[in-house]
């Protein structure tokens, strides 16, 4: 028997409770992993609280990422004792996830632990950090350099945003962080490297088709009006890497930024990202994140604390990364 956070549904209400389950309860997969750490992401918050229709099959163990040690494997790529990471692939949504002391998954979903990394460090980075790295790489590949101008990061106090701020600042970019709670979050965001912190209300008004050019690049985790406003303010030839929809999935914009300013809109998917690209991003983010990120932008909680923190994260009351110790 081992501990797992089990989600059940009754009368369309979702209930989360730490329960005891067995290996026989786990779904099929080639690799059994003893989970050391998971993390709490915004999507996990939606799943645990039942706020979003993230989960359609119950019971479910949430947790869209985890890191741990292989205990059984029928796949030659992974041996007993190997340290591994899992992010994405619908785990914690369609397949039991990381908020349990053991998980059984497909070998194709795993990534070997990068050099100079361990389970705790991997989950301090987690899905959010991997996504942030993919965003930064996309901007760089689009030709956005530190000399190009300011980079806007929306939802900057969240998991993806806080890592993106750190990565960009550490790479020499001038970062403008956008947050909904400036007084509370500005000190940490500036410690992580933001040159300026602005209130999201500056970007929430309806956007004109084109506005004064302001951003060489954007990492957007919010969508909707905030992304539309940012696109209208893009510099000529700028690029926006988009990876989230915390503000909604609509995009009330026009084609004007794209056809008159040559703006690029770069969609970032970390869920089904191919193995080689995923592995390279993991190796890159381990090398790129400075040591102070792990002390400043991460907090650790227990499995029993997840439901409370899930409510907080969807209400925008959590700053940085939340590590779940199994």
UniProtKB/TrEMBL annotation:
Entries under SUPFAM superfamilies matching the protein: GroES-like (SSF50129), NAD(P)-binding Rossmann-fold domains (SSF51735)
Keyword Oxidoreductase (UniProt): yes
Protein name per UniProt: MDR family oxidoreductase
EC number annotated for this UniProt entry: 1.-.-.-
TM region positions: none
Keyword Transmembrane tagged: no
Enoyl reductase (ER) domain segment(s): 13-324
Top-level enzyme category: oxidoreductase
Keywords recorded for this protein, A-Z: Oxidoreductase
GO-annotated molecular function: oxidoreductase activity
Pfam families: ADH_N, ADH_zinc_N
